[in-house]
Amino acid sequence: MYRKSKLSKSIVSATAAAAITGGLGSAVYAAEIEEIYITGSHIKRASQADSLSPLVNVGMEEIKGSGIITNAELFRWLPINSGSGNQHNAQNGFVDTFGTANVNLRGLGIGSTLVLVNGKRQVETGPGTNDEQTFVDINALVPMIMVENIEILKDGAAATYGSDAVGGVVNFKTRTDFEGFEIAGNFQQTARADDHEDKEISAIWGTGNDTTHAVIAATYFERDAFFINERSHFPRRMTSGFGNPGTYTLLEDSATDPTLLEGTRLPDPLCGTLTGSFVSGTTCRFDYGPGYTMAPNTTRRNLYATLDHQLAEGHRFYAEFGYADADVQTNSSPSLPVLRTPAPEVSSTHPGNPFGADVAISGFRAVGDGLGEPGNGSAEWTNDNDTTRFVFGLEGELPWESWTYDVGYTNSENNYRQSKPDQISSRFDLGLAGLGGAQCNPLTGTPGVGDCMYFNPFGNFAFASEGDPEFNSPELLAWLNTRNVTVWNTELETIEGVISGDLFDISAGTVALALGYQRREDSRSGDLSDFANQEDLLFFIGAPDYSGDRTVDAYFGELFVPIFSNDNGSVLEAQIAVRYEDYDIGFDSTDPKVGLLYRHGDSFSARATWGTSFRAPSVLSLASTTSGTEFASEAFSGASFTFFNNTARPNPDLQPEEAESFNIGFTVKPLENLEVSLDYYNIQYEDRFVRESSSQLISADSDNLIAAGCTVATLFTPACQAVADPDIIRDPITGFPIRVFVERFNASSAETDGLDLAIDWFIETEMGTFGISNTSTYVLSFEIQAEAGGETRELVGRRNTDEIFARSMPELRSNTTLSWDYSDNHKVVATWRYISSYEETDDIDIDSWSTLDLQYIYNFEGFAGNPTQIGIGALNVFDEDPPWTFTTLDQGWDAQVHDNRGSMLFLNFNMTFQ
Fold it and tell me: pTM for this structure?
């Protein structure tokens, strides 16, 4: 059994927790709320100002003032969030998860941020990212109209919540006490003539009496797709050496052309004639960019309901229900590259073969654009993503004075069905041999006779007519193609209970204690298509089905101790928390946390936290074989951004990742209307889950082969096979890597530190109230070490496309908001957003980016005197294009950092019926 005790580590001097600041505009949330749970603590406090941890609060009015209508957009702009996959891009690492959104606090990984709803866990979405990080889909949580506020804890919180709370915690709190009826509508439209629109309609209804209160909210959201070829800013540079028509290598001398000798590699004679194809050297390349969507077509429905019922005096029953359904469609190239090995061969007797010799296909995709407009033949990928959530609980007073209890049950489940196109490998071979078609018996049929048909991979298929031997009939293509369907299911069940109350009084105040227990059971399964199970697909290859589950028992405690308090308004308080989690699959973890809070009246406070956190390996990494695609370039084969299949093997022996976090900060209020907060954070993250880097394995294999004097022609000689990596399968004709088998293990470590700044100032005049706020995050360092004793690399200010777990990481992200409130009816909000430049490679920079959002809000009494609000404005007023990127396959922009839509004009309204 694996065991770690972080209590045995020396506890450093306590230091700061930051002030409570907003992330989008005006930052301070100072409402006094009696007896609330603050994110990061199990002891109820009088207000959020009592938090010892660095906490950001984004309130409902702040969200309305931003013009943002989705959780994905909200978190994309938060300076503390870096590297989320909340926008669609062909190659951004989120191929299976388009339409979802996630949080990546501090850039530590989207699986290293814990997401809660009303303080309780939510199930992760079914598929993982390309680098196998699993996450909670924040698009599948609460309708935005029901969000009261979002609390973001910016330090580790395993002592309170357990696994995954390494980078921090995001807690969505709902409007559980709302009464009346409210309806809201939002419409966004690109300022350019591409008809890209977002439409949303939402409603919330609440009612109650002295004993019972119910609230229900619903949202319907639609997003129209638009394609890369609708924007002139983005170059069609998404080219591939896998073309249609393809590239061929002669396996013998040509019988019709004496200049074509065995081993000659050349493009199809009609390359350049069919749409999307062009000749480059000896290769028929293909521009697949026009087939890709830059934003997927999306329809999403969210429903959430809460119920509170007062039982006997001092006790209440509460329940929650959530449902989210998303139908998302994106488009890709007409078909995908043939990645299976060995390379398919075509006989000289094939009726379409123009070479007069047996040939091997050395770069091919089965279907191209043909002779139509670019992108006309693009293929559709669809995701159907359903999430449900049930919560039941009891809360009340215990017989002892000031002591309360809270026990609850939570069940959440995600069902995720994806359908994407591919071709069936075995049928592809039969078609090349003339034995294709649903009615052909390959054992008794004659090639090209009767029900047995040839599949023609050569370019002359496009000019053939029905009845010609080169013609690919619709029936043959339907038999060859398949919808590769994968169904993922994840489920999380949680039973938990907490008691808390006052222990005793001391001179400085009252010592309080919280104790609790939690039991979690989570399961995950993947049901792949039969062809995928048989590894009988040309591009995605395939993998077996998988399933796994685990159970966790957690015991935790928290102590609040007032250290001193005097008549001058000075207060010093401490928090000590510890949590033990025991997993039934063979490991456990003990994590402490300590914090200090010093306050001097309302003018100054300093806060500090230190603690350890951990992240348990997911069932996906422990139990599944996953098969995906990546790309790389290498010297040995001369491949330039070639696609290959990446197959990761399960590792049931993975151990938890461990982290140690430290925060120090202060808040000063030199004037009644001015508040400044500054925080320093440091996080050390060890034993991180690593999936071997395919590109690094390929690079090392290339170096070894070159050093041994090997060439593509001698690759399969015994001497070269002795130095070749057996986990890299290469095309025998071109030497290109086609498939790479990788392992998962605990190895890497990372350390990051940085500064968070928040400034809030307002002034009241005869012309109204003017305000200015700024929230900024500056990353000082982000160093990683892939293996113990290995090279340490600095990742700040780099795009990190070749790193195993890091994503794009600009040094500085900043939001500055100016507001003007006039006569309670009129409000103008302007937000300037800035992202610093960063390096794509050592020689290429991605420029800094600045955008301005502007909104005018008008409040008035609308229909029947009901309060009504209308907002009009634009996101990215000056239509600033995102900075260019130069990686061939990512559509020319960095989806993890920038927004590709340009200026978005919007109109929103909100009406409350009282």
Answer: 0.90
